[in-house]
Amino acid sequence: MQELDSKLDLLRHQRTHLPEAAEIAALEVARRELDAQARDARIVRDDLELTRQKADADVEAVKARRKRDQDRIDQGVITNPKDLEHLQSELANLERRIGVLEDEELAVMEELETAQGTLSEAEAKLEELDERLATLTQARDQKAAALDEELEKVAGGRPGLIADMPADLLALYDKLREQKGGVGAAELRARQCGGCMLTLDSAEVGRIRALPSDEVVRCEECARIMIRTGESGL
Questions:
Q1: What is the DSSP string of 152-201?
Q2: Which of 6, 68, 101, 220 is 20 to 30 A from residue 22's alpha carbon, by CA?
């Protein structure tokens, strides 16, 4: 019974401590952080794209105004010398304004390129991380399914073992298992308790030797049930 229960405990431990599960948990934390970085980078990229579009629109508006004024000069619409001089001065100002706006637009485009690079890098890392998570999840699920199947198989043998066991002995065994880290009974081998590894003295060996074979023997040190076998040294 103890051997079966110990195997069940081991299988349950393996089931709840799959190495893939621990790595998945760590990667999920990393993914949330990386996803937040990508979200922030996307906001920066989108804001810069709007700024670039506005800068481009401003440049085009000034260029359109310059073209309109230049067309008026080329078509001879302006005949008054002072008006012509004023318009030419305005054209020069517009030309300078276009230069300033194009420089600003170029600066924004450079920032946009950097922001897009940051976002692309974060998205590539997310994709790589998601692929790793998918692989680990599949491996975890396969191992978990195999362990669940093994647990069901091993647990299926327990009812047959306890069928003929006295209720009070089973209750004692289960209580000891709960108190003693899962080990309620251990073999007495070579005069040594298999639970706490205490070596029995001669007086205790003599006492146990005199007991009926069906009487429950417990270790005086750890209180576990000791199972007598041909190798107990009695």
A1: HHHHTTHHHHHTTS-HHHHHHHHHHHHHTTT--EEEEETTEETTT-PBPP
A2: 6
136: left (phi over 0), alpha (psi -120 to 50) or beta: alpha
Q: pLDDT of the chain along its 234 residues, tens only?
A: 888 999 999 999 999 999 999 999 999 999 999 999 999 999 999 999 999 999 999 999 999 999 999 998 888 888 888 988 899 999 999 999 999 999 999 999 999 999 999 999 999 999 999 999 999 999 999 999 999 999 999 999 888 888 888 899 999 999 999 999 999 999 999 999 999 998 998 988 888 888 888 889 999 889 999 989 888 887
| End-to-end C-alpha distance for the chain, whole angstroms | 23
| Domain assignments of the chain as residue spans, ordered by start | 2-155, 165-228
Task: Locate 228 and state its tokens.
Answer: 């007598």
CATH number of 2-155: 1.10.287.1700
